[in-house]
Each structure stands twice: as C-alpha cells, then as structure tokens.
Amino acid sequence: MTDELDRVRDHYRATGLTDRLKTALAVFGSEERRLKPEQLATLDQFHTRGLAATAELANLAVIDADMSVLDVGSGVGGPARFLEATYGCKVTGLDLSEPFVEAARYLTARTGQDDNVSFETGSALALPFEDGRFDAALLQHVAMNITDRPLLYREIRRVLKPGGKFATFDVVLNGGDPLYPVPWAKTPGESFLLTAEATCEAIEAAGFGTLVRRDDTAAAKAWFAELRVSGPPPLNLGIVMGQGFAEPTTNLGRNLMQDRLGILTAVFEAVPVNGAIPGKV
C-alpha cells in the first residue's frame, strides 16, 4: 500500500503550485482582494464537466446547511468551497497531496471561507476521522487511483452516520483498453479502473444501499466536444498540474468518445446498524 500511495503522491506533487496560483490570480487584483468561489471554478474543479458535475452531485445527495460534509480527494478545494457557498454547510476536504492541501487553504483564505471549510492531508484508505462524524461524503474522480476499493468504501462508510449520503462521480471501464496517459495515470500500471457494475457492487458490499445510479457518459462526451471547439479558458487545470497536462486531458476525451471509458454518477445511503437496506430509486 505504501508504494501505491507514494506513486499517487508523486503524480500529484505539483511543485510550486501555490506560487503558480498567486501569479495566475493576479488578474483579479491584489492579494488582499477577496475572491468569489465562482471566479475559481475553471481551475479548481478537478474532474470531467467541472462545476456543473459538482452541482448536480450535491443536488442528488440533497446537501443542506445542517450537514457536515467530507470531500475525499479534495484537490485544491473547489467542490468544498462550492458546497459551503451554496448550502452553508461545514465541509472538510482530505487529500493525499500536501501541495494540493496547501493550495486549497490558500484559495479558501482568498474567498474568506476559512471558518466553515478546512483541509487535511491524509489517505482515503485510513481516514483520520472518528466513526460516524459526517452526514455526507463526496468522491469525484478519485477511485481510479486506488486499487483497494473495498477498503476505500469501508472507510467512507465508517466515518458516515447511519443514513448518511455517499455521492460519487467517477471514471469507469466501459469497453476496450484505455489510451494513456490520462489525468490520473501516465501508464496502465498506475490506473485501477472498475466497471460501473463492479464499482456499485463494491460500494454496496461496504454497507451502502443505492439511491441513485446513472450513466453520465453522454454528458461528458458533449462537454469534451464543446471544450475542443472553444479551447480551455485562461484559468484552467493546466495551472494546477503544470505543463504537459493537455495530452492526458485529450486522451480522457478520446477514451470517452471511443467508449473505452464511461462516467458513473451515483448516490448511496449508509445502511443503518440494523442492516436494513434502503430501497433503490
């Protein structure tokens, strides 16, 4: 497990990230000027379809102001800031990459959301939180880097309250071998994809009942097609990941267009201790 975590850390090392963000954000004025979360949306949503996907997932999970939410694999904090700004909930982000966590804290200070949004460095396979702490958890484009899916999903179940919501938006195997590199892996040896069916089975086996499950591949294809025509915005994920990010992103789009990969959106409910399985919707 240690070797796997080290490979993931290396992939997302992002040396000098906070300094790059400071330089890029100079277009908005001085460091003292408070930013709005939506001003960062083109560079802080590290997944297909960006902010639109986060907003849909949060809506499906029925997030509200009374919830304490965990964002697993929080990147530079875009989804966490969106949730707090939109719903008024408290959000904790966790990421394996120290540069990402540092950058997330910096951006959250710039948006003035420090009181309700926090970030910690840690592994999704050993969440540094007590049992039953959170009302909801989000996982977006993270599981592709994790080989021990049963442990990942058991850990998320452990930190959720009974009846808590687990919302995931992830890349899944669809048909054929993926083209590499992709945003989460340079080679097949760093990528641990499952089919949508196998993903949902692993989640249910960890103590969840399925509430919502849908195939969002078509929406992702449309997003990539539009991006190919319009080109990336000036503030984009290349600032986060550095030079060379264009090829992996292009390959992800090709994999989707060729039906090698798909996109799964799903929401689950933590099964109560008595073992009752919620009905599917």
How is this fold's topology laid out?
Elements: H1 2-11, H2 17-24, H3 50-60, E1 68-72, H4 78-87, E2 90-95, H5 98-111, E3 117-121, E4 134-140, H6 149-159, E5 160-173, H7 196-205, E6 208-215, H8 217-230, H9 237-241, H10 246-257, E7 261-270
Parallel strand pairs: 1-2, 1-4, 2-3, 4-5
Antiparallel strand pairs: 5-7, 6-7
Helix pairs in contact: 3-4, 6-7
Word description of this protein:
Residues 275-281 have low confidence and may be disordered. The protein has helices at residues 2-11, 17-24, 50-60, 78-87, 98-111, 149-159, 196-205, 217-230, 237-241, 246-257; strands spanning 68-72, 90-95, 117-121, 134-140, 160-173, 208-215, 261-270. By secondary structure, it is of the alpha/beta class. It starts with a helix and ends in an 11-residue tail after the last strand.
Mass-distribution shape: globular
Number of DSSP helical runs:
10
Main sheet summary = 7 strands, mixed
Give the helix level as a range of percent: 25-40%
Overall SS class:
alpha/beta
SSE pattern, N- to C-terminal: HHHEHEHEEHEHEHHHE
The averaged pLDDT comes out at 92
Rg over CA atoms, rounded to whole Å, is: 18 Å
Give the low-pLDDT segments.
275-281
Please give the order of strands in the largest beta sheet: 3-2-1-4-5-7-6
Percentage of β-strand residues:
15-25%
> How many distinct beta strands?
7
Could you give the distance between the termini? 36 Å
